[in-house]
Design brief:
single chain, alpha/beta, Spore Coat Polysaccharide Biosynthesis Protein SpsA, Chain A, 2 domains, nine-stranded mixed beta sheet, 48% helix, 19% strand, globular
């Protein structure tokens, strides 16, 4: 059994990212050459810009290739690549699903492998893990992981490690339990991916949230590893599809919250998005900036309606994920919707509560049995 398969999912990366696309692949190629038992899989989602041909010309046999005739989505591509590898008799201890806009460093990768081997001993049922990524555009931490709150909103770990001294302090510790790992670079232990794979129906956005919440139900935790792996040029490959992104984020967030938190939470999430919709429409009517907000409002409304339709068709709720005790940020209805409308969801108070929850989870890592096993 080999150590790791890295699935790099691509869709028109050559035209969308240019030299950054090739720089990213070059960094993965260097990692595969330096570390034994690591295979890099170039998984193409029906690109029509010559990406596949250019990658074959530049990297040839350095990569394994899976090419689809159409775009099956990020999660769908990872699932099919995993199935393809298994059917070919290729088994790995770890499976990575990665974006094509990440530049990895060999030193960070070596530290990542060190922690993964420790975690394998500590979590016999498997785990899902992710490293820290810094922003390729400068400005510090990109993300690494998130916490989910009662409204389905996600809060990045960068809120508690956005300064150099905070990040340095964090890097000296053990892995931290999180609600979900950032889908830009997710590491599945083989036992985790056998139990929980991506929901292909989500296509793009929130598929990382959904699969990690489902894994928590199986007793498979999501963990942030205190290792800086490299740079992430976030949204470089999806920024051109703003309307589609807005629609998918809205639909998938509402649907995921319904599946894992029930109809009671669905009402709160719907109210959150309806508030955003109303705000956009009001600003559109006031001419700030007008047409753009109106078009975005239509995408949000479509996402809300389709999410309700999907939730109705699903009939059953998977389970209340809170019973699995993942790290979640619980916000009361009173906090979310204060009587004073001028407070606009009492953003300052909400952020204060969120930071309190996140710092608590960071502190608790040193108290858990598994963290002591990994230290």
């Amino acid at each position: 059994m080999k150590r790791m398969a890295i699935f790099i999912v691509n869709y028109n990366g050559l035209s969308g990212l240019g030299e950054l696309f090739l720089e990213s692949l070059e960094s993965f190629s260097m990692v595969a050459q330096r570390f034994g038992g690591v295979d890099v899989w170039f998984v193409d989602n029906g690109s029509c810009d010559g990406s596949v041909e250019e990658v074959r010309r530049r990297f040839g046999g350095d990569f394994r290739y899976v090419v689809f005739g159409r775009n099956v989505g990020y999660g769908g591509a990872c699932n099919l690549a995993y199935t393809y590898a298994v059917r070919r008799g290729l088994r790995y201890t770890y499976y990575v699903c990665s974006n094509n806009d990440i530049v990895v460093h060999s030193s960070g990768f070596a530290e990542l492998m060190y922690w993964l081997d420790k975690l394998e001993k500590a979590f016999p049922k498997g785990f899902i893990a992710g490293p820290i990524l810094v922003s390729g555009y400068g400005g510090g931490l990109d993300t690494g992981c998130y916490y989910v709150d009662s409204m389905g909103r996600v809060w990045p770990f960068s809120l508690v490690a956005n300064r150099a001294e905070k990040l340095a302090q964090f890097l000296m510790g053990a892995p931290i339990p999180v609600s979900f790992v950032d889908g830009a670079f997710m590491v599945f232990h083989r036992k985790a991916i056998e139990k929980a794979r991506f929901n292909p129906g989500l296509f793009l956005y929130n598929e990382d949230v959904e699969v990690c919440l489902r894994a928590w139900l199986y007793g498979i935790p999501s963990l942030l590893i205190p290792v800086v792996l490299g740079e992430h040029y976030r949204s470089s490959s999806t920024s051109k599809y703003e309307l589609l992104s807005t629609y998918l984020k809205t639909r998938n967030t509402i649907y995921t919250m319904y599946q894992y938190f029930g109809a009671g939470r669905l009402l709160g999430v719907l109210l959150h998005y309806l508030w955003i919709l109303t705000e956009n429409l009001c600003l559109s009517i006031a001419g700030k900036p007008g047409k753009e907000r109106l078009v975005l409002s239509k995408s949000i409304l479509r996402g809300i309606l389709d999410a309700i339709s999907l939730s109705h068709k699903s009939k059953t709720i998977i389970d209340d994920v809170k019973h699995a005790h993942p790290p979640l940020i619980n916000l009361s209805f009173k906090t979310l919707f204060p009587r004073r409308l001028g407070a606009r969801f009492a953003q300052d108070r909400i952020k204060e509560i969120v930071l309190h929850h996140m710092e608590r989870w960071v502190r608790r890592r040193s108290m858990t049995r598994h963290s002591r096993d990994c230290a």
